């Protein structure tokens, strides 16, 4: 019969128990580190889940508030357009009348200035000359 011969000698037999203890302690520390990392990831996932819930609630409340905004904006624009048309139609004749009145006033002013500037002087010069003549008559 053949007997099995191990290819590598036993670690305990060659190096002793201290190496085995080191390996076990190192393995335990790695395990504790992995458990700590998994616990931190789990905590972050809870925080992210809460943040996602808050954002979802904010989105839903915003939707409830703003879902009718496009119709309201369209109604407002239509109202402004109607108001602008109405007042343009009402004010156009009044603007025409004011423009005609200002034209008549301008023509009257030019005729008035022409009356005073018969001697070839400007209106201001005529006014000054008239004022001097009045003063001389009083004296």
Binned, the helix content reads: over 70%
Mean residue pLDDT: 82
Q: What class would the helix/strand composition place it in?
A: mainly alpha
Which stretches are poorly predicted, pLDDT < 50 over at least 5 residues?
A: none
Q: Return the string of H and E elements.
A: HHHH
Between the first and last Cα atoms, what is the distance in angstroms? 162 Å
β-sheet strand percentage: under 5%
CA-based shape: elongated
Total count of strands: 0
Annotation field: number of helices: 4
Radius of gyration, in Å, reads 51 Å
The profile of the biggest β sheet is:
none
Describe this structure in words.
The structure is a single chain. The protein is mainly alpha-helical and 139 residues long. It has 4 helices and no strands. The chain has helices at residues 11-14, 17-66, 69-116, 123-138. The longest helix is centred in the N-terminal third of the chain and has 50 residues, at 17-66. The mean pLDDT is 82.
